[in-house]
Task: structure prediction
Amino acid sequence: MKTKKYLFDGSNKCQLNDIPTNSKEDDVDKESILAETEKNLEKIAILQDIFYADKREGLIVVLQALDAAGKDSTIKNVMSCMNPQGVTVHSFKQPTTEDLTHDYLWRVNRCLPERGKIAIFNRSYYEDVLVVQVHNLQKNYSMAERIISQSEKKFFEKRYQQISNYEDYLYENSYRVVKIFLHVSHDKQKERFLERIDKPEKNWKFSSADLKERAMFNEYTEIYNTVISKTSSTHCPWYAIPADQKWYTRYLVSQILLNELEQCKSKYPKLSDEAESGLMECRRQLVNEK
Ligand code: AMP
Ligand code: MG
Result:
Protein backbone atom coordinates (compact mmCIF):
# COMPACT_ATOMS: atom_id res chain seq x y z
CA MET A 1 0.00 0.00 0.00
CA LYS A 2 1.50 3.31 -1.08
CA THR A 3 0.05 5.32 1.80
CA LYS A 4 2.29 3.74 4.47
CA LYS A 5 5.18 6.15 3.93
CA TYR A 6 2.86 9.08 4.50
CA LEU A 7 1.44 7.70 7.73
CA PHE A 8 2.03 9.23 11.18
CA ASP A 9 0.86 6.97 13.94
CA GLY A 10 2.66 8.47 16.92
CA SER A 11 5.85 6.46 16.41
CA ASN A 12 7.54 9.02 14.16
CA LYS A 13 8.03 12.77 14.04
CA CYS A 14 6.72 14.75 11.12
CA GLN A 15 9.14 16.82 9.02
CA LEU A 16 7.16 18.11 6.11
CA ASN A 17 10.26 19.31 4.30
CA ASP A 18 11.32 15.66 3.98
CA ILE A 19 7.97 14.55 2.62
CA PRO A 20 7.44 14.84 -1.14
CA THR A 21 4.72 17.05 -2.57
CA ASN A 22 4.50 14.94 -5.74
CA SER A 23 4.60 11.33 -6.88
CA LYS A 24 8.16 11.27 -8.34
CA GLU A 25 9.69 9.25 -5.52
CA ASP A 26 6.92 6.69 -5.68
CA ASP A 27 7.70 5.87 -9.30
CA VAL A 28 4.10 5.46 -10.36
CA ASP A 29 2.44 5.72 -13.71
CA LYS A 30 -0.53 8.05 -14.01
CA GLU A 31 -2.68 5.73 -16.13
CA SER A 32 -2.50 2.87 -13.66
CA ILE A 33 -3.05 5.19 -10.71
CA LEU A 34 -6.21 6.53 -12.36
CA ALA A 35 -7.41 2.97 -12.92
CA GLU A 36 -6.60 1.99 -9.33
CA THR A 37 -8.46 5.05 -8.03
CA GLU A 38 -11.56 3.99 -9.95
CA LYS A 39 -11.32 0.51 -8.45
CA ASN A 40 -10.89 1.99 -4.96
CA LEU A 41 -13.95 4.19 -5.41
CA GLU A 42 -16.02 1.15 -6.39
CA LYS A 43 -14.84 -0.75 -3.33
CA ILE A 44 -15.54 2.27 -1.08
CA ALA A 45 -19.10 2.46 -2.40
CA ILE A 46 -19.68 -1.19 -1.48
CA LEU A 47 -18.12 -0.89 1.96
CA GLN A 48 -19.95 2.36 2.72
CA ASP A 49 -23.26 0.61 2.08
CA ILE A 50 -22.39 -2.03 4.68
CA PHE A 51 -20.98 0.59 7.09
CA TYR A 52 -24.24 2.55 6.79
CA ALA A 53 -26.39 -0.51 7.44
CA ASP A 54 -24.22 -1.75 10.29
CA LYS A 55 -24.33 1.55 12.26
CA ARG A 56 -21.72 0.41 14.76
CA GLU A 57 -19.03 2.98 13.97
CA GLY A 58 -18.89 6.59 12.83
CA LEU A 59 -16.06 7.93 10.68
CA ILE A 60 -14.65 11.44 10.71
CA VAL A 61 -12.27 12.41 7.94
CA VAL A 62 -10.41 15.62 8.73
CA LEU A 63 -8.91 17.44 5.76
CA GLN A 64 -6.35 20.09 6.56
CA ALA A 65 -4.08 22.05 4.26
CA LEU A 66 -2.78 25.42 3.26
CA ASP A 67 -4.81 27.29 0.65
CA ALA A 68 -5.08 25.83 -2.86
CA ALA A 69 -3.86 22.39 -1.82
CA GLY A 70 -7.03 20.82 -3.25
CA LYS A 71 -9.32 20.11 -0.30
CA ASP A 72 -12.47 21.10 -2.16
CA SER A 73 -11.67 19.16 -5.30
CA THR A 74 -10.69 16.09 -3.25
CA ILE A 75 -14.07 16.19 -1.54
CA LYS A 76 -15.83 16.62 -4.87
CA ASN A 77 -13.99 13.80 -6.60
CA VAL A 78 -13.32 11.16 -3.98
CA MET A 79 -16.42 11.46 -1.86
CA SER A 80 -18.75 11.48 -4.86
CA CYS A 81 -18.62 7.68 -5.00
CA MET A 82 -20.51 7.46 -1.72
CA ASN A 83 -24.21 7.42 -1.01
CA PRO A 84 -24.97 11.03 0.01
CA GLN A 85 -27.41 9.75 2.65
CA GLY A 86 -24.48 8.47 4.65
CA VAL A 87 -22.11 11.41 4.26
CA THR A 88 -22.02 14.98 5.55
CA VAL A 89 -19.47 17.65 4.72
CA HIS A 90 -18.72 20.42 7.20
CA SER A 91 -16.56 23.40 6.34
CA PHE A 92 -15.02 25.11 9.33
CA LYS A 93 -14.54 28.76 8.50
CA GLN A 94 -13.72 31.66 10.79
CA PRO A 95 -15.72 31.14 13.96
CA THR A 96 -18.85 33.23 14.38
CA THR A 97 -19.38 35.50 17.37
CA GLU A 98 -21.59 32.77 18.82
CA ASP A 99 -18.90 30.12 18.26
CA LEU A 100 -16.40 32.30 20.05
CA THR A 101 -18.56 32.56 23.14
CA HIS A 102 -18.04 28.78 23.57
CA ASP A 103 -15.14 26.38 23.85
CA TYR A 104 -13.57 25.57 20.46
CA LEU A 105 -15.00 22.04 20.31
CA TRP A 106 -18.56 23.30 20.71
CA ARG A 107 -19.12 23.86 16.99
CA VAL A 108 -17.39 20.57 16.24
CA ASN A 109 -19.58 18.48 18.53
CA ARG A 110 -22.63 19.67 16.66
CA CYS A 111 -21.18 18.20 13.45
CA LEU A 112 -20.36 14.73 14.74
CA PRO A 113 -21.99 12.09 12.57
CA GLU A 114 -24.32 9.47 13.92
CA ARG A 115 -22.80 5.98 13.81
CA GLY A 116 -23.08 4.54 10.31
CA LYS A 117 -22.30 7.90 8.77
CA ILE A 118 -19.16 9.56 7.54
CA ALA A 119 -18.43 13.21 8.27
CA ILE A 120 -15.89 15.04 6.16
CA PHE A 121 -14.39 18.02 7.92
CA ASN A 122 -13.11 20.61 5.46
CA ARG A 123 -10.77 22.21 8.02
CA SER A 124 -11.56 21.43 11.61
CA TYR A 125 -10.70 22.02 15.26
CA TYR A 126 -7.09 21.81 14.12
CA GLU A 127 -7.48 25.43 12.96
CA ASP A 128 -7.61 26.25 16.67
CA VAL A 129 -3.97 25.28 16.98
CA LEU A 130 -2.93 26.39 13.47
CA VAL A 131 -4.32 29.71 12.26
CA VAL A 132 -4.99 30.71 15.86
CA GLN A 133 -1.37 30.02 16.83
CA VAL A 134 0.17 31.59 13.71
CA HIS A 135 -1.75 34.84 14.29
CA ASN A 136 -1.97 34.65 18.07
CA LEU A 137 -5.73 35.06 17.88
CA GLN A 138 -6.20 33.64 21.37
CA LYS A 139 -4.88 36.93 22.75
CA ASN A 140 -8.15 38.61 21.84
CA TYR A 141 -10.39 35.85 23.15
CA SER A 142 -12.62 36.66 26.05
CA MET A 143 -11.37 34.13 28.58
CA ALA A 144 -10.39 34.10 32.23
CA GLU A 145 -7.09 35.58 33.33
CA ARG A 146 -5.79 32.15 34.36
CA ILE A 147 -6.06 31.10 30.71
CA ILE A 148 -4.89 34.28 29.03
CA SER A 149 -1.94 34.72 31.38
CA GLN A 150 -0.37 31.39 30.37
CA SER A 151 2.53 31.46 27.95
CA GLU A 152 1.58 30.79 24.34
CA LYS A 153 3.62 27.60 24.45
CA LYS A 154 1.68 26.27 27.42
CA PHE A 155 -1.67 27.33 25.97
CA PHE A 156 -1.12 25.37 22.76
CA GLU A 157 0.57 22.42 24.46
CA LYS A 158 -2.64 22.05 26.42
CA ARG A 159 -4.71 22.26 23.27
CA TYR A 160 -2.67 19.47 21.63
CA GLN A 161 -3.42 17.35 24.66
CA GLN A 162 -7.11 18.32 24.62
CA ILE A 163 -7.34 17.36 20.95
CA SER A 164 -5.65 14.01 21.55
CA ASN A 165 -7.97 13.38 24.49
CA TYR A 166 -11.00 14.35 22.40
CA GLU A 167 -10.02 11.96 19.63
CA ASP A 168 -9.38 9.17 22.16
CA TYR A 169 -12.81 9.89 23.60
CA LEU A 170 -14.38 9.60 20.16
CA TYR A 171 -12.49 6.39 19.41
CA GLU A 172 -13.64 4.92 22.72
CA ASN A 173 -17.19 5.82 21.75
CA SER A 174 -16.99 3.87 18.50
CA TYR A 175 -15.79 6.58 16.15
CA ARG A 176 -12.76 6.64 13.95
CA VAL A 177 -10.94 9.86 13.21
CA VAL A 178 -8.49 9.98 10.32
CA LYS A 179 -6.63 13.16 9.59
CA ILE A 180 -5.21 14.02 6.19
CA PHE A 181 -2.84 16.88 5.45
CA LEU A 182 -2.61 17.80 1.78
CA HIS A 183 1.01 18.74 1.32
CA VAL A 184 1.31 21.31 -1.45
CA SER A 185 4.56 23.00 -2.48
CA HIS A 186 5.11 26.76 -2.33
CA ASP A 187 5.53 26.84 -6.13
CA LYS A 188 2.38 24.87 -6.85
CA GLN A 189 0.38 27.10 -4.53
CA LYS A 190 1.57 30.13 -6.53
CA GLU A 191 0.61 28.44 -9.80
CA ARG A 192 -2.88 27.64 -8.51
CA PHE A 193 -3.36 31.16 -7.10
CA LEU A 194 -2.41 32.64 -10.49
CA GLU A 195 -4.90 30.33 -12.18
CA ARG A 196 -7.58 31.52 -9.75
CA ILE A 197 -6.78 35.11 -10.66
CA ASP A 198 -6.45 34.56 -14.42
CA LYS A 199 -9.54 32.41 -14.96
CA PRO A 200 -12.77 34.40 -14.36
CA GLU A 201 -14.66 31.22 -13.38
CA LYS A 202 -12.11 30.66 -10.62
CA ASN A 203 -11.96 34.26 -9.30
CA TRP A 204 -14.43 33.45 -6.52
CA LYS A 205 -11.96 31.02 -5.03
CA PHE A 206 -9.34 33.69 -4.47
CA SER A 207 -9.13 36.27 -1.73
CA SER A 208 -6.36 38.81 -1.17
CA ALA A 209 -6.13 37.41 2.38
CA ASP A 210 -4.75 34.21 0.78
CA LEU A 211 -1.54 36.12 -0.01
CA LYS A 212 -1.14 37.15 3.61
CA GLU A 213 -1.39 33.49 4.62
CA ARG A 214 1.05 32.54 1.87
CA ALA A 215 3.56 34.93 3.38
CA MET A 216 3.42 32.73 6.50
CA PHE A 217 3.97 29.48 4.56
CA ASN A 218 7.06 28.53 6.59
CA GLU A 219 5.41 29.34 9.91
CA TYR A 220 2.46 27.12 9.00
CA THR A 221 4.79 24.33 7.92
CA GLU A 222 6.62 24.45 11.24
CA ILE A 223 3.40 24.40 13.24
CA TYR A 224 1.98 21.56 11.14
CA ASN A 225 5.13 19.57 11.95
CA THR A 226 4.46 20.00 15.65
CA VAL A 227 0.71 19.46 15.42
CA ILE A 228 1.02 16.29 13.33
CA SER A 229 3.77 14.90 15.57
CA LYS A 230 1.84 15.60 18.77
CA THR A 231 -1.62 14.46 17.72
CA SER A 232 -0.90 11.24 15.82
CA SER A 233 -1.75 7.89 17.31
CA THR A 234 -2.25 4.38 15.99
CA HIS A 235 -6.01 4.68 16.27
CA CYS A 236 -6.30 8.32 15.11
CA PRO A 237 -3.42 8.71 12.66
CA TRP A 238 -2.38 11.57 10.44
CA TYR A 239 -1.39 11.18 6.81
CA ALA A 240 0.65 13.92 5.14
CA ILE A 241 0.25 13.26 1.42
CA PRO A 242 1.60 14.89 -1.75
CA ALA A 243 -0.82 17.47 -3.14
CA ASP A 244 0.90 18.92 -6.21
CA GLN A 245 -0.80 16.43 -8.57
CA LYS A 246 -4.51 16.11 -7.97
CA TRP A 247 -4.75 12.67 -9.59
CA TYR A 248 -2.21 11.34 -7.09
CA THR A 249 -3.81 13.06 -4.08
CA ARG A 250 -7.18 11.56 -5.03
CA TYR A 251 -5.69 8.12 -5.31
CA LEU A 252 -4.03 8.38 -1.87
CA VAL A 253 -7.18 9.74 -0.23
CA SER A 254 -9.22 6.92 -1.79
CA GLN A 255 -6.68 4.44 -0.46
CA ILE A 256 -6.81 5.93 3.06
CA LEU A 257 -10.60 5.96 3.07
CA LEU A 258 -10.76 2.39 1.81
CA ASN A 259 -8.29 1.31 4.47
CA GLU A 260 -10.38 2.94 7.24
CA LEU A 261 -13.59 1.32 6.01
CA GLU A 262 -11.88 -2.07 5.76
CA GLN A 263 -10.66 -1.74 9.34
CA CYS A 264 -14.25 -1.21 10.51
CA LYS A 265 -15.07 -4.78 9.42
CA SER A 266 -18.72 -3.76 9.11
CA LYS A 267 -21.34 -6.40 8.51
CA TYR A 268 -24.92 -6.17 7.35
CA PRO A 269 -27.06 -6.58 10.46
CA LYS A 270 -28.11 -10.18 11.03
CA LEU A 271 -31.71 -10.71 12.01
CA SER A 272 -32.63 -12.59 15.15
CA ASP A 273 -34.36 -15.96 14.61
CA GLU A 274 -37.62 -14.34 15.66
CA ALA A 275 -37.24 -11.40 13.26
CA GLU A 276 -36.28 -13.80 10.48
CA SER A 277 -39.37 -15.95 10.92
CA GLY A 278 -41.44 -12.71 10.97
CA LEU A 279 -39.85 -11.78 7.67
CA MET A 280 -40.70 -15.19 6.21
CA GLU A 281 -44.28 -14.72 7.32
CA CYS A 282 -44.41 -11.35 5.52
CA ARG A 283 -43.00 -13.05 2.44
CA ARG A 284 -45.70 -15.73 2.55
CA GLN A 285 -48.37 -13.05 2.83
CA LEU A 286 -46.98 -11.12 -0.15
CA VAL A 287 -46.68 -14.22 -2.32
CA ASN A 288 -50.21 -15.35 -1.49
CA GLU A 289 -51.73 -11.89 -2.00
CA LYS A 290 -54.83 -12.04 -4.19
P1 AMP B 1 -11.55 28.55 3.32
O1 AMP B 1 -11.48 27.17 3.88
O2 AMP B 1 -10.47 28.82 2.32
O3 AMP B 1 -12.89 28.92 2.83
O4 AMP B 1 -11.20 29.60 4.48
C1 AMP B 1 -11.71 29.50 5.76
C2 AMP B 1 -10.86 30.38 6.63
O5 AMP B 1 -11.34 30.29 7.96
C3 AMP B 1 -9.39 29.98 6.64
O6 AMP B 1 -8.57 31.09 6.44
C4 AMP B 1 -9.22 29.43 8.04
O7 AMP B 1 -7.93 29.59 8.55
C5 AMP B 1 -10.25 30.21 8.81
N1 AMP B 1 -10.60 29.54 10.07
C6 AMP B 1 -11.10 28.29 10.24
N2 AMP B 1 -11.22 27.99 11.54
C7 AMP B 1 -10.77 29.05 12.22
C8 AMP B 1 -10.63 29.35 13.61
N3 AMP B 1 -10.96 28.47 14.55
N4 AMP B 1 -10.13 30.55 13.94
C9 AMP B 1 -9.79 31.45 13.00
N5 AMP B 1 -9.90 31.24 11.68
C10 AMP B 1 -10.38 30.06 11.29
MG1 MG C 1 -9.26 29.85 1.07
About this structure: The chain has one domain: 2-287.
